[in-house]
């Protein structure tokens, strides 16, 4: 399988973390920013790092961006630079462009430019925080529709040592257990924060026993997950 290639333009907190995580997943990452100190910091954590002005046509056209699987415009401060960079990428012939949204007006302009893959990390972070505030104990969630989502929670103490048949989760709480993540250890990195190394059980069998230090991944509704946690 061919290694995927990505370019991340704009290395603020969001762009920096995005570039490093893509690199950690085994992809080739070209990171671009106009601050040399940031390039120096990230240079040994991605495939290539270049200090340059992403609105400069001559320099950008020599990078082979048209051959990338996707280019992510993660610029978070300059409205003008983001628009100019995106327009230049279209002119170059980049196949897939993701662009970070800075404001409502910025979003409208990007849509007029037919950029449909819009990134709003602040809104996503706010949505995740709302879930964690409303459902204490929730680790992570991903909304699939207005009513249903996928939720990660630490294993309740009352579940430890029991199997799925004994817990009868579907009938008792109206949720489905998708998988179990067994936490092996935690490690922290200064820039991208604490990360967990886990072993995925896969699709749990009915006789699968729940162990301590596990994370349960459910499909269901907010209110049912909340009832399960509070029970």
Brief characterization of the structure:
Helix content is 34%, strand content 29%. By secondary structure, the chain is an alpha/beta fold.
Which descriptors apply to this entry?
single chain, 231 residues, alpha/beta, Rossmann fold, Alpha-Beta Plaits, 2 domains, 6-stranded parallel beta sheet, 5-stranded antiparallel beta sheet, 34% helix, elongated
> Compute the gyration radius: what is it?
21 Å
Order of helices and strands: EHEHEHEHEHEHEEHHEEEH
The name of the CATH superfamily of the largest domain reads: NAD(P)-binding Rossmann-like Domain
Sheet-strand content, in percent, reads 25-35%
**Widest sheet: strand order?**
3-2-1-4-5-6
Explain this structure.
With 231 residues, this protein is an alpha/beta fold. The protein folds into 2 domains: 115 residues, Rossmann fold (3-Layer(aba) Sandwich), CATH 3.40.50; 107 residues, Alpha-Beta Plaits (2-Layer Sandwich), CATH 3.30.70.1450. Helices cover 34% and strands 29% of the residues. The strands form 2 sheets. The chain has a 6-stranded parallel β-sheet with strand order 3-2-1-4-5-6, sandwiched between helices. Strands 7-8-11-9-10 form a 5-stranded antiparallel β-sheet. Strand 4, helix 4 and strand 5 form a beta-alpha-beta unit.
């Amino acid at each position: 399988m061919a290694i995927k290639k990505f370019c991340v333009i704009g290395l603020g907190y969001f762009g920096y973390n995005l570039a490093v995580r893509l690199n950690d997943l085994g992809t080739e990452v070209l990171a671009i920013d106009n601050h040399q100190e940031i390039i120096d910091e990230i240079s040994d954590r991605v495939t290539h790092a270049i200090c340059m002005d992403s609105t400069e046509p001559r320099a950008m056209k020599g990078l082979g961006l048209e051959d990338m699987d996707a280019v992510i415009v993660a610029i978070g401060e300059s409205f003008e630079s983001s628009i100019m960079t995106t327009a230049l990428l279209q002119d170059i012939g980049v196949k897939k462009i993701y662009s970070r949204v800075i404001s409502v007006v910025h979003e409208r302009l990007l849509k007029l430019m037919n950029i449909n893959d819009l990134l709003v990390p602040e809104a996503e972070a706010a949505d995740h925080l709302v879930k964690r505030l409303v459902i204490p104990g929730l680790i992570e969630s991903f909304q699939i529709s207005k009513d249903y989502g996928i939720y990660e929670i630490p294993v309740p103490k009352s579940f430890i040592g029991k199997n799925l048949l004994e817990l009868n989760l579907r009938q008792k709480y109206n949720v489905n257990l998708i998988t179990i993540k067994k936490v092996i250890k935690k490690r922290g990195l200064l820039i991208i924060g604490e990360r967990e190394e886990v072993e995925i059980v896969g699709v749990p069998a009915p006789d699968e026993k729940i162990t301590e230090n596990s994370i349960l991944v459910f499909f269901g509704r907010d209110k049912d997950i909340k009832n399960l946690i509070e029970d």
